[in-house]
Write a structure and sequence with these properties.
The chain is an alpha+beta fold and 369 residues long. It folds into two domains: 88 residues, Roll (PH-domain like), CATH 2.30.29.30; 235 residues, no CATH class. The protein is built from 15 helices and ten strands. The strands form two sheets. A seven-stranded antiparallel sheet has the order 4-3-2-1-7-6-5, with helices on one face. α4 packs across α10, α5 packs across α15 and α12 packs antiparallel against α14. The longest helix has 19 residues. The N and C termini lie far apart (65 Å).
């Protein structure tokens, strides 16, 4: 029986579990540090997903929970490759998956009106996890360029983004420290790129491919590093769950999905449609609750205050000048339930995420012209 150490991510929290992986006749046997069996993944249900160089990362095909298993041991990875048909490090599996997605899309188009009315939400939910991350990143880059045009009607260009001036660089460094802290713990399959722009709305949103926008108004209304980090962690949750990609597929329909498959992010106004959709997005209660829970778990992992997200949500929702998120929160009667759920969670050890000087610099990240 061949075995080696590995890392198990359950897909629900951001915690990384050290495990032992054993090859048994039924599949991959996963045991925790105490030797307790956590799961057996059958070989015919395992597929390879994108991961760091030198590490085999596998998941269960079609599993709605994004659980992942990382195997750094080369010999065990080779043995798994030999036992599991879908774990093909040559790239053939990804090409087959793309052809399968195209086939599904063609079948959906044949249903026309019925699919548009009844099937698109379900199709988007099923297809979003199948989009290769490199395609999602390319799509996110294209959307980002169009988002800048929509957010910056005055055409200020580079000056529209905070943190570039000499007086703002310390603030940019402090923001990057928060991002790196959250990113390292979240262990996403793609990097996080966050930027602050000169908009007075208290708002934040995530784009496909790991891009996050933070508005100056949000920085102004945050009173502690933990409040801002809690909001960022919430948006990281949307990135981890691929919510923006799924929402665009659902709202824009199958014609836009074909554009993603073909890499046509400009022709036909696809990017403009997607960008406007994301700026007007209002996620469902379940989606927002999942992102809230992700934020609470991630903040707990970095020893931040998991209740801080609820504190800033309450402040913005109560602020008549809050704009952005305030309007969104006031449109949802369950907001108080969300805040109560966040603040009812157990607090662990809390350590300062930034010192006083760093937080002061971050508050001044938009102090330039």
């Amino acid at each position: 029986m061949q075995s080696a150490s590995g890392t198990f991510l359950d897909g629900v929290t951001s915690a990384r579990h050290n495990v032992t992986v054993e090859l048994v006749p039924a599949g991959l046997q996963i045991r925790d540090a105490s030797g307790k069996a956590l799961a057996i993944w059958a070989y015919d249900c395992i597929e390879r997903v994108s991961g760091p160089a030198g590490i085999l990362r596998v998941a269960l095909a079609g599993n709605p929970v994004l659980a992942r298993l990382e195997i750094p041991d080369g010999e065990l990875a080779t043995a798994i490759d030999a036992c599991a048909a879908r774990v093909d490090r040559s790239g053939r599996t990804e090409r087959r998956m793309r052809r399968k997605v195209v086939a599904w899309s063609i079948a959906a188009v044949a249903s026309t009106v019925l699919v548009a009315v009844f099937g698109l939400p379900a199709i988007a939910t099923g297809l979003a996890p199948l989009i290769p991350y490199r395609v999602e990143r390319a799509f996110g880059d294209a959307v980002d360029a169009q988002i800048r045009v929509l957010l910056d009607p005055r055409g200020r260009g580079a000056d529209f983004e905070c943190g570039r001036g000499d007086s703002e660089k310390d603030g940019a460094a402090a923001l990057q420290k928060l991002i790196q802290m959250l990113e390292a713990t979240a262990d996403l399959p793609l990097p996080i790129h966050a930027k602050v722009v000169r908009r007075r709305d208290a708002n934040a949103f995530a784009l496909p491919g790991g891009r996050i926008y933070l508005f100056q108004g949000l920085i102004d209304r945050a009173q502690t590093p933990d409040e801002l980090a809690g909001v960022i962690a919430h948006e990281v949750g949307h990135v981890a769950h691929r919510d923006s990609t799924r929402y665009v597929l659902q709202a824009a329909g199958l014609s836009f999905f074909f554009g993603m498959l073909l890499g046509d992010f400009v022709g036909g106004g696809a990017v403009i449609m997607a960008s406007k959709t994301l700026l007007q997005v209002s996620y469902s209660r379940d989606v927002e609750t999942a992102a809230d829970a992700y934020s609470v778990d991630l903040m707990t992992e970095v020893f931040g205050d998991p209740h801080a997200l609820g504190t800033i949500l309450q402040r913005i929702a109560s602020d008549p000048d809050g704009m952005g998120w305030a309007k969104l929160l006031l449109d949802h009667p369950e907001t108080r339930d969300r805040i109560a759920a966040i603040t009812s969670t157990k607090r662990g050890t809390i350590k300062p995420l930034l010192d006083a000087a760093q937080w002061d610099a971050l508050k001044r990240i938009c102090s330039g012209p």
